[in-house]
UniProtKB/TrEMBL annotation:
The modification 4-aspartylphosphate is found at D55. Its EC number is 3.1.1.61, 3.5.1.44. It comes from [Clostridium] polysaccharolyticum. HAMAP family: CheB_chemtxs. It holds the Pfam family Response_reg. GO terms for molecular function: phosphorelay response regulator activity; protein-glutamate methylesterase activity; protein-glutamine glutaminase activity. Keywords: Chemotaxis, Cytoplasm, Hydrolase, Phosphoprotein. It is found in: Cytoplasm. It comes from the Bacteria. This is Protein-glutamate methylesterase/protein-glutamine glutaminase.
Length: 367
């Protein structure tokens, strides 16, 4: 059964482009079009959709206002934001993710770019994961997908149980000189809000984050987390010296590595080619830590598509004393990255999202 998609965008051109891309795949069909949030809300109240493709800046009711109404009316659907890279658009996109949007896709800046393979692939991939969300299984009748999801989840449950049973014995924590290195992707911005603001100001380690985002968005993410946290949170800049109790988010569109100058650990950024299509890439960050002076590195893997982080952490495990924490299946928006690291057999703890902040604090301690 085809999955029904609603497009809400005030641009007739974008509605046509998005419709053409979505309808080109046999699994999906665009069954609703709206020119603003008010019309979109009416569609959502009257009909059922497996996913919504939503613009932010629209007349009468914008995307954020619609997200608030979706929450208020308890409408169950997965929303994919298609947003510009403008600063104000970036902040609003982060806010939309807070309000429950599944993920976002960067809106092309020109008509020519809307025809690009990269935009088409990213949009369809995001819709694919959004419509596979098990949160919708109870309210939508697409039996084949449900059966596959249930089969996959049964396999994942066995994997997670096995991981918990055979994980490595807990090592004796090193008292000082620790680093926390965290990786996340789809669902990451919201997951980070359940972790970072709950960490103490005097955390006894610096914290590096690679969240898969394009240029223009990570600064807004850092600013929002900084508003909510006791810790100082910033978008990483070349030359930043790592300090305990501070959080550094890899700059969108740049890889982040750690270099040492004497006793100082310093961030460097570069625009080397993407790894596995990703820049920033968590594997790149973890690779750079193999020769670091840190006595112990706590690796945290949260929700996300794919397997970024697994190769880097596996390599890091060969040279450094590490402790690995992975988010569990039930609380992950997409159980991809945590699943991959669990399958690699180097996870020390598999935890629900709400327990990860405590595990981090307990393991690295406070100053």
């Amino acid at each position: 059964m085809k999955k029904n998609i609603l497009i809400i965008d005030d641009s007739a051109l974008m509605r046509r482009v998005l419709s053409d891309i979505i309808n080109s795949v046999s699994d999906y069909q665009v069954t609703g079009l709206a020119v603003n949030g008010l019309e979109g809300l009416d569609c959502l109240i009257k009909n059922s959709y497996d996913a919504v493709v939503l613009d932010i800046n629209m007349p009468k009711m914008n995307g954020l206002e619609l997200m608030e109404q979706i929450k208020k009316h308890r409408i169950r659907t997965n929303v994919v934001i298609v947003s510009t890279v403008a600063k104000e658009g970036a902040y609003e996109t982060i806010r939309a993710l807070e309000l429950g949007a599944f993920d976002f896709v960067t809106k092309p800046e020109s008509f020519y770019e809307t025809k690009s393979d990269s935009f088409r692939a990213k949009l369809l991939q995001t819709i694919h994961y959004a419509t596979r969300s098990t949160k919708l299984e109870k309210n939508n009748d697409f039996s084949n997908s449900i059966h596959k999801n249930r089969t996959d989840r049964a396999s994942d449950t066995v994997l997670e149980r096995k991981t918990k049973e055979v994980r490595k014995p807990k090592r004796s924590p090193v008292k000082n000189n620790k680093l926390i290195a965290l990786a996340c992707s789809t669902g990451g911005p919201k997951a980070l809000q359940s972790v970072i603001p709950q960490l103490p100001k005097n955390l006894n380690a610096p914290l590096l984050i690679v969240q898969h985002m394009p240029a223009g968005f990570t600064r807004s993410l850092a600013e929002r987390l900084d508003e909510l946290s006791e810790l100082e949170v910033k978008e990483a800049e070349a030359g930043d010296v790592l300090e305990k109790g501070k959080v550094y988010i890899a700059k969108g569109g740049n890889h982040m590595r750690i270099q040492h100058q004497g006793s100082r650990a310093i961030i460097s950024l570069d625009n080397d080619p993407p790894r596995s299509g990703l820049r920033p890439c968590a594997d790149f960050m973890y690779d750079s830590l193999c020769d670091s002076a840190y006595d112990e590195i706590v690796c945290v893997v949260l929700t996300g598509m794919g397997s970024d982080g697994t190769k880097g952490i596996s390599k890091l495990n060969e040279t450094k004393n590490i402790y690995v924490i992975a988010q569990d299946m039930e609380t992950s928006t997409v159980y991809g990255m945590p699943k991959a690291i669990a399958k690699a057999g180097i996870v020390d703890e598999v935890l629900p999202l709400e327990e990860i902040k405590t595990a981090i604090t307990n393991y690295v301690g406070v100053q």
